[in-house]
User: Which sequence fits this backbone?
């Protein structure tokens, strides 16, 4: 099965699944006219293009009271959602350029702003969704402080309390150390850009 077709098929399960099919750094196409077969992810840079790490601060093991699917449905009740959707093409183009040119400072600003905007939509939905824990906010503040002090790291947060700290590979151990020692994060995972999905023999 062609990669695009497989990604479109995985999309029917979740957006994360669609993005996990291609290799390296990927972009997920919205598709045309709501047709699922036109919504798939494709590679914009191979894994070796930029040696980044995702240092994931797992701050809670609890199941979410409201899952991502329900959260997406609530987004349309937020007065901020229309503005968020309208500005996606511009943010995506700027993010793609920052990634292709490996401009870490610009990527940091874009990634954090997009994360903040998504959670602002959640906070202004009816009913409001607040996935953050106090430690989530503490990590956000710390990451921004660390970056202002010269450590090349930024954060993004999915629909939950854990924080993804993005940094160059040679800084991952330092970010992990700070999460453990300065913020008392109990569990930290580290992930690198990966290859394409494949069948296990």
Assistant:
């Amino acid at each position: 099965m062609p990669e695009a077709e497989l990604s479109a098929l995985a999309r029917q399960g979740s957006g994360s699944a669609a993005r996990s099919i291609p290799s390296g750094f990927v972009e997920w196409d919205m598709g045309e006219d709501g047709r699922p077969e036109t919504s798939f992810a494709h590679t914009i840079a191979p894994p070796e293009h930029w040696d980044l790490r995702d240092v994931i601060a797992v701050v809670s093991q609890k199941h979410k009271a409201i899952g991502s699917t329900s959260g997406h449905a609530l987004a349309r009740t937020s007065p901020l959602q229309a503005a968020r959707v309208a500005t996606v093409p511009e943010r995506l183009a700027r993010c793609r350029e920052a990634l292709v040119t490996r401009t870490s400072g610009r990527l940091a600003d874009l990634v954090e702003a997009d994360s903040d905007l998504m959670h602002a939509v959640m906070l202004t939905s009816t009913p409001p969704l607040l996935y953050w824990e106090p430690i989530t906010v503490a990590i956000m503040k710390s990451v921004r402080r660390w970056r202002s002090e010269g450590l090349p790291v930024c954060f993004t947060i999915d629909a939950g309390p854990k924080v993804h700290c993005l940094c160059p590979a040679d800084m991952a151990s330092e970010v992990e150390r700070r999460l453990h020692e300065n913020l008392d994060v109990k569990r930290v995972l580290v992930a690198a850009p990966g290859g394409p999905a494949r069948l296990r023999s």
